[in-house]
Amino acid sequence: MRQSKLFTKTLKHLPKDEASSNAQLLLKGGYIDKLMAGVYSILPLGWAVVNRLEAIIRSELNSIGAQEVFLPALQPKELWSTTGRWETMKDILYTVQQADQEYTLGSTHEEVVVPLMQKFVHSYKDLPVAVYQFQTKFRRELRPKSGILRGREFLMKDQYSFHVSVEDLNRYYDMMKQVYQRIFQQVGLGDVTHLTFASGGAFSKYSHEYQTVTPAGEDTIYICQQCQLAINREIKADTPVCPQCQGQEFIEQRAIEVGNIFKLMAKFTEPFNFMVAGADGKPQPVIMGCYGIGIGRMLGTIVEIHHDAHGIIWPEAVSPYTFHLLNLHNDSVQADQVYTTLQLAGHTVLFDDRAVSAGIKFADADLLGLPIRLVVSPKTQGKIEYRRRVNDTTALVGLDELVKRHVQ
Amino acid sequence: MRQSKLFTKTLKHLPKDEASSNAQLLLKGGYIDKLMAGVYSILPLGWAVVNRLEAIIRSELNSIGAQEVFLPALQPKELWSTTGRWETMKDILYTVQQADQEYTLGSTHEEVVVPLMQKFVHSYKDLPVAVYQFQTKFRRELRPKSGILRGREFLMKDQYSFHVSVEDLNRYYDMMKQVYQRIFQQVGLGDVTHLTFASGGAFSKYSHEYQTVTPAGEDTIYICQQCQLAINREIKADTPVCPQCQGQEFIEQRAIEVGNIFKLMAKFTEPFNFMVAGADGKPQPVIMGCYGIGIGRMLGTIVEIHHDAHGIIWPEAVSPYTFHLLNLHNDSVQADQVYTTLQLAGHTVLFDDRAVSAGIKFADADLLGLPIRLVVSPKTQGKIEYRRRVNDTTALVGLDELVKRHVQ
Question: For residue B273, is it left (φ>0), alpha (ψ between -120 and 50) or beta?
């Protein structure tokens, strides 16, 4: 992509009404734009990151046989009355009227997915099965805050699994823990994200959150010094020892909840009377789990974790482009050659071909935070200055060597 | 994909409350599910088609430099009051309240995209520029009908271009006609889709629709027998001759509007006072065009055009899988080999490994409509029965020959 063609531009000043580093940097870099409190547009560079996050998650979920769907945002009141959540969640549900019908905008999709699966799943032989989607959710937050971490409209990966027994749910749930660990590792949050025990509600002892440690976090967690699992403050009083290893030494940290997994048991299948024929022919309730990852929240959290005073530092796996090519020549002969060669070799390149000063190009490269900055200029004498954003490692390399170093 | 693992099943009976062939077949095949009137869930097979449609469109739009974004559904009343459409479109806008604020759910995105571009585009040098998105739209249809052709919630590709002059808009608009022609050709609608003159509103003589001829269409068009362009009935009285070639012979047809393109001129940029500095330094209004394709509508229209009494007949470019492999052996030795070999060769395969009768497998294969059906059975004697869904061409081929015939 030629930067001169990119319609977004970096902003000169930090937006005043955004306190969080992630929103400041994403806005300043032109990754996102704020339409109103808690509602953001995702711009080309930000959308490229979202696509990479979704591709990583999709690949992991498809590998365990989960099936992708796309469920409606408009959901009839009747379904939400069936589960009782039209009342219990009324403070956060956006509602819409048409004639004498009432709808909610989905803040979650249990009320849609359970009746859907009920149409197709009739026997224990049809289980287990899991579906997921990437979709916009709506939540009537009174005071949206922390940039894109807590919005009124936000992208989620939500996933629902259905089982013939609690044992099978437990098996799947443990497998999902492995899947989530791999996902957070790939997007650059693995080392600072802790599986965290949280309140399980009335029907399950615990749920689990994935909490990423950062001072910008809204939550407080206690990390067990023996096994590295954590406990959310909401249950700390009731849980003085680690439920995993009985450790008693904890360190308190602020953290962002980037995902959660929940054993829903029969909470949502029972109200819809979703039963299957068991192996013995007798009807039995379907057991359910759910698994969420906030995509916008993950985007913001990655920036929160990976930035410095100059800008974002994207992990390579989620960066909108691998290379940021800066042309400081008066002509574009060498830069064009590098740009074309890298793209032919299968790499993604943002090519700063703008007629602006070297200082602006360097500052924007730091702000945008692509993993590898390449500079061609009269000073590089036909070679390319290669710098890794993460650690400032700099080297002078030839084009052939560069391509060999980065074999796709 | 092993069909035994696919959670959807084909339905035995046609849904009674769906009059249109496309909705009947898509529902019967488990491609979509109806949540309520005008609101559908997209299931794995349907989602795979949607992904292929989006990939075709995305590739064409990226090739002309359009940039992908993702804009909010929740939009503040103020923006819609600025353009006057809070009043003029109130019959079809869903509205949402929160405290003393009112929002609409986007039925289109001019009110969001114009102020967004205004933040980044300041000079004639920043133009032309075009952005697009694939997004859920909401429309308060009183009587949604024709299955997924006219919904309350639906997927759209919407695109907006911005120009320094009417001449530049005209140039881009003509280029978009070529792009749309290529898109409709690729998805299997090219031969029956006519560029159609329609009402241009107060600020433009004509807009253009892409109308696909089918008896199931809601619109009536008049196709010029000289140049094959068409005229929408809404302007036929005022347009007795073809605006393109002055032809006077027309054939009346029913048709579905699958896309439209519109010269918006300064209709939406003026209310927001979106001006740029011209080459002479003086401020001038930005000129705008918009370009839509209904994705759900395209899905339904393809089925409407490509089906027979037995089911859907997917064009290969948009089919959820290329091959439908039916195993009629008692064991899976041969079928597993074919399944694995084709996948290793880069093909997509739906493998009917279910323990059901051959009759059910054949009927489902016709209903689901994948382009190439492969049958392995004791009768095929180690070979594979190869049948094209579109014309029933059948042949007995070896696995090597099959792979050679279908080089990716």
Answer: left
pTM above 0.90, yes or no: yes
A27-68 tens-digit pLDDT: 999 999 999 989 999 999 999 999 999 999 999 999 999 999
Contacts of A96 in chain B (CB under 8 A): 94-96, 105
Structure tokens at A247: 């450790």
Q: Which residue has the tokens 């190869």?
A: B386
Q: Are the beta carbons of B47 and B31 closer than 8 angstroms? A: no
Q: How many CA atoms lie within 13 A of B379 on its CB side?
A: 8
Domain coverage including residue B34: 21-308
Backbone torsions φ then ψ of A317, nearest 5 degrees: -65, -20
Residues A144 and A166 occupy one common structural domain: yes
**Complex prediction ipTM:** 0.96
Q: How far apart are CA A366 and CA A307, in angstroms?
A: 10
CATH number for the domain spanning B366: value is 3.40.50.800
**Do A261 and A345 share a domain, yes or no?**
no
Q: How many CB atoms lie within 10 A of CB A379?
A: 10
How many angstroms away from the CA of B226 is the closest CA of chain A?
Answer: 41
Query: Is residue A4 over pLDDT 80?
Result: yes
Please name the helix (run of DSSP H) or strand (run of DSSP E) that holds residue A333, with its range, or none.
helix A333-344
CATH number of the domain that residue B291 is part of: 3.30.930.10
Residue B272 and residue B373 share a domain: no
Asked if A92 is an interface residue toward chain B (Cβ–Cβ < 8 A), one would say: no
Q: Please, are residues B286 and B127 in contact by the beta-carbon 8 Å criterion? A: yes
Q: Is the pLDDT of residue A202 over 70?
A: no
Burial class of residue B51 in the structure, from the number of CB atoms within 10 Å of its CB (0-12 exposed, 13-18 middle, 19+ buried) = middle
C-alpha B362/C-alpha B381 separation (Å) is 19
Final residue before a domain boundary, out of A257, A282, A308 = A308
Domain shared by B79 and B104, yes or no: yes
Domain closes at, from B273, B308, B343: B308
Residue A243 and residue A221: Cα distance in Å, rounded?
Answer: 14
Contacts of B226 (CB under 8 A, 6+ apart): B242, B245, B247, B249
Query: Do A261 and A358 fall into the same domain?
Result: no
Please, which residues 27-86 of chain B have a Cβ atom closer than 8 Å to chain A?
A: 30, 33, 35-36, 39-44, 47, 50, 65, 67-76
Is the pLDDT at A214 greater than 90? The verdict is: yes
Residue A154 placed within a domain: yes
A160: contact with B, CB 8 A cutoff: no
Nearest Cα to Cα of residue B248 among B226, B231, B230: B226
* pLDDT mean across residues, chain A: 95
Q: Is residue B9 a part of any domain in this protein?
A: no
CB contact under 8 Å between A67 and B7, yes or no, is yes
| Cβ contact, residue pair B75, A116, below 8 Å | no
Give yes or no: residues A161 and A218 share one domain: yes
In this predicted structure, which of A177-181, B121-125, B204-208, B308-312 has the lowest mean pLDDT?
B204-208
Q: What is the pLDDT of residue A378?
A: 96
Q: Quick one: average pLDDT of B294-314? A: 97
Distance from CA of B269 to the nearest CA of A (A): 17
Sheet holding A323-327, edge to edge: A349-352, A323-327, A372-376, A384-388, A394-397
Tell me how far apart the alpha carbons of residues A117 and A162 are, in angstroms, rounded to a whole number: 9
The pLDDT confidence band at residue B408, using thresholds 50, 70 and 90, is low
Q: Which residues in chain B touch residue A143, judged by CB atoms under 8 angstroms apart? A: none
Domains contained in chain A, number: 2
Question: How large is the average pLDDT for residues A345-360?
Answer: 97
| Residues B215 and B71 both lie in one domain | yes
Q: Is residue A15 part of a domain?
A: no
Chain A residue numbers touching B142 (CB-CB < 8 A): 99
Nearest to B110 by CA among B128, B126, B133: B133
Q: Are residues A109 and A152 in the same domain?
A: yes
The answer to whether residue A316 sits within a structural domain is no
